[in-house]
Amino acid sequence: MTTSTITHAPLKSLPADMELVLKVIPMPADTNSNGDIFGGWVMAQVDLAGSVLPARYTAGRMATVAVNEFIFKQPVKVGDILSFYAAVTRVGRTSITVKVEVFAERIRQQGEYVKVTEATLTYVAIDDNGRPRALPAQE
């Protein structure tokens, strides 16, 4: 059995059907033992980015209740400019599901983007006791 390297052609544009919710540059302190950015750091940033759109619906406290899917497609390097795009995919009675896609603009390839991560997360509106509550009516 042979292994092959998956190559992804750089993109020249970013998603027009999603909203830019976060931009960040990972630093050397965020690396793992291989010198790439630690996956847990990326996951934390995705959770922050994913919470931006649900906050508009919850009008109060919310919590991450599920990471439905998380795919690391390419390594993230120190100095990459990461752009986090999000879109709401489902609104329930108490919860909101969000798709997050992360694109890296490599420090030596400005103007070209590579999708490095994609994830789907679910957030739930909670009351002061941490129990699920209904989402406010949307206008």
Secondary-structure blueprint:
Blueprint: E1 19-24, H1 39-58, E2 62-72, E3 81-91, E4 95-105, E5 114-125
Antiparallel strand pairs: 1-3, 2-5, 3-4, 4-5
Characterization of this structure:
With 139 residues, this protein is mostly beta strands. It has a single domain, classed as Hotdog Thioesterase (Thiol Ester Dehydrase, Chain A, Roll), CATH 3.10.129.10. Helix content is 14%, strand content 37%. The protein has a five-stranded antiparallel sheet, with helices on one face. A hairpin with an 8-residue loop joins strand 4 (95-105) and strand 5 (114-125). The longest helix has 20 residues, at 39-58. The protein is elongated and about 45 Å long. 26% of the residues are buried.
**CATH homologous superfamily (4th level) name:** Hotdog Thioesterase
N-to-C CA distance: 56 Å
When the domains are counted, the total is: 1
Low-pLDDT segments: 1-5
Biggest sheet features:
5 strands, antiparallel
CA radius of gyration is 17 Å
Could you estimate the helical fraction of the residues in percent?
Answer: 10-25%
Q: Roughly what is the average pLDDT, rounded to an integer? A: 91
Form type: elongated
Keywords:
single chain, mainly beta, 139 residues, 5-stranded antiparallel sheet, 37% strand, Thioestr_dom, disordered N terminus, hydrolase, Thiol Ester Dehydrase, Chain A, Acyl-CoA thioesterase, HotDog_dom_sf, long-chain fatty acyl-CoA hydrolase activity
